């Protein structure tokens, strides 16, 4: 999924996932049951680490766009992202701490690129790029959170995904409706 990054990358998401894999390795036995439990733990921790990086992106990028946006749609959406994802991020951090899952401290490489692509733009072009990226991001988020609400092995992680899903769907609906008006601007 994150092709193109090298093994020597400083991608904080990958580093957190490696830490979680090491924890899972030491916590499971070499039995088939242990290997199955490890796979389940890997899915859950991978979901949380990616969600953490994505949530950080929503907040950090939202703050940048909220202060620099020229369209009311981009400004409104950015402010909504800061508010909603700050709350979700706090819940995610508490859940990860409870489950002894290490989260990335900074944006992953793919989210860093999105941040750079949006913030390098100015004016309406920035607003358009922001809403384009947020549309794509929320389409992916809805799919990943839907999957986790079904596939996560830990009931608390499954519940977090299910609880967060309606908010993400409302963001997707919101950006889908706002984007045409912003894209029409020159």
From TrEMBL:
Species in which this protein is naturally found: Hymenobacter sedentarius
Top-level taxonomic group: Bacteria
Compositionally skewed regions (Polar residues) per UniProt: 1-11
Ranges where the DUF4142 domain occurs: 44-177
Stretches for region Disordered: 1-42
Name of the protein: DUF4142 domain-containing protein
PANTHER family with a match to the protein in the record: BLR2558 PROTEIN
Lineage: Bacteria, Pseudomonadati, Bacteroidota, Cytophagia, Cytophagales
Annotated Basic and acidic residues bias: 12-24
InterPro entries, sorted: DUF4142 (IPR025419), Ferritin-like (IPR012347)
């Amino acid at each position: 999924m994150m092709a193109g990054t090298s093994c020597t990358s400083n991608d904080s998401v990958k580093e957190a996932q490696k830490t979680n894999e090491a924890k899972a390795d030491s916590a499971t036995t070499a039995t088939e049951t242990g290997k199955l439990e490890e796979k389940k733990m890997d899915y859950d921790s991978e979901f949380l680490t990616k969600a953490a990086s994505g949530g950080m992106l929503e907040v950090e990028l939202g703050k940048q766009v909220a202060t620099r946006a020229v369209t009311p749609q981009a400004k409104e959406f950015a402010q909504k992202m800061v508010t909603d994802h700050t709350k979700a991020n706090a819940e995610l951090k508490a859940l990860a701490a409870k489950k002894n899952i290490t989260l990335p401290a900074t944006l992953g490489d793919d989210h860093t690129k999105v941040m750079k692509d949006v913030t390098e733009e100015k004016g309406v072009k920035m607003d358009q790029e922001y809403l384009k990226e947020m549309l794509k991001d929320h389409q992916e988020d809805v799919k990943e959170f839907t999957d986790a609400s079904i596939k996560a092995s830990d009931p608390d992680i499954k519940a977090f995904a299910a609880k967060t899903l309606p908010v993400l769907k409302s963001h997707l609906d919101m950006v889908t409706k706002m984007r045409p008006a912003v894209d029409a601007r020159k």
